[in-house]
Structures are given as C-alpha cells and as structure tokens.
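Weekly modeling sync, notes
Attendees: AB, CL, MP (scribe)

Item 1: holo prediction request
CL wants a bound-state model with adenosine-5'-triphosphate before deciding which constructs to order. AB pointed out that an apo prediction alone won't tell us much about the pocket. Agreed to run with the ligand included and paste results into these notes for async review.

Input as submitted:
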Amino acid sequence: MVEVEVRNVNKTFGNFKASDNVSFEIERGKLIGLLGPSGSGKTTILRMIAGLETPDSGEIYIGGRKVNDLPPGERGIGFLFQSYALFKHMTVFENIAFGLTVQKKSDAEIKSRVEELAELIGLKNFTRRYPLQLSVAFARALAPNPELLLLDEPFAAIDAKVRQELRGWLKKTIHQLGITAIFVTHDQDEAVEVADEIIITNRGRIEQAGVPIEIYQAPKTPFVAKFIGESVQVADYTIFKGFEDYEPHEGILRPEFLEIGATIEEMPQPMPVTTEKGIIRGTYFRGSVIQIDIEVKGQLLRGLQGVGDNMTKKYSSDVLIIGDWSICVN
Amino acid sequence: MREPIWLKMALITISAGFLFVMLVMPLILVAKEALARGVEFYFKALTDEFALKALYLTIEATILAVLLNTLFGLASAWLLTKFDFRGKTFLGSLIDLPFAISPVVAGLFFIMLFGRMSPLYPILQEYDVAIVFAVPGIILATVFVTFPFITRELVPVMESQGRSEEEAAATFGASGWTIFSKITLPNIKWALGYGIILCSARAMGEFGAVSVVSGHIRGKTNTLPLHIEILYNEYNFTAAFAVASVLVMLAILVLILRNVVEHYGKDVEHEEIAEPAADLKVGVANG
Ligand SMILES: Nc1ncnc2c1ncn2[C@@H]1O[C@H](COP(=O)(O)OP(=O)(O)OP(=O)(O)O)[C@@H](O)[C@H]1O
Ligand SMILES: [Mg+2]
C-alpha cells in the first residue's frame, strides 16, 4: 500500500529551481533514504511533505489523502529537524509532551505516553546510549503517533563512531514501530546501510529510486553511477583490449571490476583477451583493503585488494584485467 | 599580552576621573542643590500641584509608549525575522528613523501633521479632537521617539534563533497564538524586557519632541522634563533640582533593572542555544 505519493512537484526560490518535477511513491512501513549532494533539494522535498513549504505546482498525498491544503499539524507527520529545534525553555518532559499537550490529551495519558517514549530512547533507567538532544527530538516527533516520520539529516551533528551505531538503531526502531519514514542524508554509506529504498536527488530532480543494491548495480544515469559507490571515470572505454568493437563512449569503472595480478597466470580467472599491462602509480592502505592506483594506456584506474594478499611488493611488472563493463552509461 | 602596571593604573585613573566628573559629580550636585533649602522645601517642591501633574503625565506617556511600542516592536520584529519580502531592508532602516532624526524635527513634523497648517486640522476640529498642544500630541511624540528601542532589541535575538522551533510547534498542530505564547515569547522575554526598560528610560526623559508639541501649558501639557525647564527658567533652581532628582532616581532604578535583566537574560538566551541539554536533564528528573 502506498503511504506517500509525490506527483510532479515543482518549487522555485527566487529563480532557483529547488524541486524540478519531483515524483515518487513510498510503500507503507518502508524506511526511505533521500540521498543527494548538498543543495540538491532534499530538505525542500521533506519540508513540502511536512507542509512547512508550499509547492508551486504538483500534488502530495499521505495515506491516500491529498494534503496540499492541509496545515502541517493535520498531515499525521512527525518531523525531526536537522538542528533538532528542541524547545529550549522547556524541560525534556515538556518537549516530548508538546504534541500531546497541543491535542489537549489528559495528564494521565500524556504521562504514560511520555514514559513509554522515555523508555524507548533509554532515558528512563539511565540506559540512554545516544546523544540526549537527538533522543529527545526523536521521542518528541513520535509522541503523537504519526503515520509518517520525516528526518532531516538526523545524524549530521554526531561524531562518526556513535553515528555508525545509530544507523542500526534507527533502522531497528523504525521497523519495530512499523511506521513509514523518510530520512535525508548526503552520506551514501548511511543511506545504503539504513534505508530499505533510496531516492537519489540531484539539482532538484529525482535521478533514481530503488533498493540500494539495484541502484549500485544498475545506475540509470551517469550522476548516480558516480555518486553511489566508488568509481573512476574513463573518457573512452573502447581503448581497452576486448572492448574495441563497441561504440566509443565514456565509461565508469568500479574498483571491483578490475582484477589485478603480477602475471596472467596468477589471476583468479586468467582471461588473456581482456588483460592489459599497467603500471602501479600508488598503493594506499585503507583499513580493510589496499587501494591500487594503476595506469593503463595513459588512463588512471583504481582497484582494491585484500590486505592479506600483501601485493605491494609483488607487482613490479603489472598486469590488469578489465572485467565487467556493465557500468557503461549513456 | 600583559600591560605594564603604570599603564593600567593610568587608564583606570583616567576612566574613573572621567566618570566622576561627568556622572558622579552632577549626581551629587543635583542632590545637594535639591536639598539646598532643606528637606521640607524639597518635598514641597515635589508635591506641588504642577509637579505632580507633570509626573502623572510623564507616567501616562511612558506607559502608553511602552505598551504601543511593545505591540509594534513584536509585530515588526516578527515581520522582519520570520518572513522574506521585498523592501525588508528599507523597512528595517525606516524603523531606525527616530534614532537618526532630531527629536525637535520629529516634534515639528507632528505640528505640521496635526496643527493649524495641516489639511487634517479642519477634520480634527469638527470632531473636537486636539492633538497638538494637548496630551495626545505628547503621547504621539513620545511613542515616535521611542519606537525603535524594542524592535532593535528583538530583531537580533529572533534572527539568531531562527524559525525552526516555531516550525516544530506547527508540525504538532499548535495554533498561531500557542506558538507565539509558548515558543516565541519565552525565547525572547529577556530581550523584550531589556527593550521595554530602554524604551521607558527614553520615554521618561524625552524633551525635544515633546517640548515642540506640548505648548507648555502648566498642569495640562507639561511633563517632568518640561516642568524642570520652566522652574529653571524662573530661577527657581532648588525646585528644579528637586524635581530633577525624581528623574535621576527613576534613571537609577532603570539602571538596576537593566543589570538584572542583562544578568539573567545572558544565561538564558545565549548559553542555552549552545547547550540546552543540561537544562533539559533537570526537567526529566522532576517530570
Ligand atoms: N527558503 C529558501 N529561500 C531561498 N532559497 C532556498 C530556501 N530553501 C532552500 N533554498 C535553496 O534551495 C536549494 C536546495 O535546498 P535544500 O535545503 O532543499 O537542499 P539540501 O539537499 O537539503 O541541501 P543540504 O544537504 O545542504 O541540506 C539550496 O540551494 C538553497 O539555497
Ligand atoms: Mg538539507
């Protein structure tokens, strides 16, 4: 069942097009990552869904209901602001309870709901593991039981180590609650790790939407191919052995499409027809892998090797296999 | 960097000396002159019919100026910080106009607008409304001269706080009034208080604009500063200084209030932005 539908939405600020004919659908219960570079219009989309910004044209549906003319408070959404926007003169209790207070719920009801949420974020028994402000903002947004949770770069202000942990926690919690959620991020690792599906934005447009692995394997636009995963751009891939018969074209090459060995015989799957000689220009230790920058026919390519292979010494004369070119894009 | 001790001492002496000559000595002289003919005369000068009337008028003008300018200040600061529109910068500088313009010119402006030469004058006459040389003119002049104070205090605070708390409240369905009273107002209350204090101080002491529109009718259109001037011009120095001492005391009161507000306001509006967490934690323990 479709929970959110955005149809042909446009939005300009002055003469800057922040949303350019944006359309997508989101299934109920899904956790969606809205991913794109800075200034690509992610926050604008989120704010229009929330009703904090009015689209110039197009329709927005939440739970089958057209919400264009509804104020934010009647859309059944919870919004987690990038800066959290906590009510700074209020206590934690008052912050979390705010949505319920506005709805004029009874004191007893408010108290039990806030306690429930305090437990969820681990505030109750000093089991809180995550930054207080984020936890409170999260609980506050959830308090009135929204159908749809909108999160604008929730982890942007948090240090890398905790952020890593938070990703798993967010995914687990959202699925536990069974609500639909859209979270904005410009960090592709975060999107890939947390989201059930990703929507990629670029210059106000939607480039592609889908399951992370699908997007990685079959990017539909050059932008997506470059933006998701690691890659090297090749001006014309038909210069390489085995690809001469194709139309000359730009290619985008992921590191795993290369196999590197000192000699052909040493490769896992020797394929002389597509093997080229190359010169290693640099090797970099990157934690769990070693990155090898290798020059083939004047073109700098990038491959990865397991650390265990201890290849840095071995490749004084280098051979390179160019494997899968499915990433070539038009 | 460390300054040599003699430089420090010299600077302190210069500042202290300057403050003494320019501020403390005048205050002492006011007190001395006010009491020159004894305590009895002092209180008589204060409780003189015209002095009391002038005091009431000053209080009336001050209260009205503060009320009107609070409303105006909140509205204009809200407009300037929460909305984007054409001519915003122009509106901002327009609000500062009373700072730039001489109060006497402002007074003349009201005479032109509401006085005998004005095209509005016949209409005002018809409804029997007197503005110039009457209490409404004094209040108008006071409001005009003091209107930038509150806006000026509010705009930077509201600007730095942004709109996100208000937006967060809106996502929960809070009404405009709830958002203003529960979110915006508590966040700006110290700045508002500070603005109100500055506005009252200025309103109480206003001389130039009020002097032009007042007409100096004793017991009717005289405020304290005007009354002091009249007494002084009549060579009634002791009475002039006695009445002046009231303004001095009001000024000292304002100064004290100002310090209190600054002291508390600083903690709340500036430090809290950086780290609301500590404050929040306490709440949960009680909540
Ligand atoms: N209220 C506004 N007035 C004018 N321009 C705006 C406004 N809101 C956004 N923009 C512009 O629209 C563009 C897209 O903004 P948006 O905040 O949606 O991008 P984003 O993808 O969320 O970027 P970021 O990762 O930096 O948060 C930006 O260039 C921004 O300057
Ligand atoms: Mg953003």
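Recorded for review: The first helix of chain B runs from residue 5 to 34.
Action items: CL to compare against the apo run; MP to circulate these notes.
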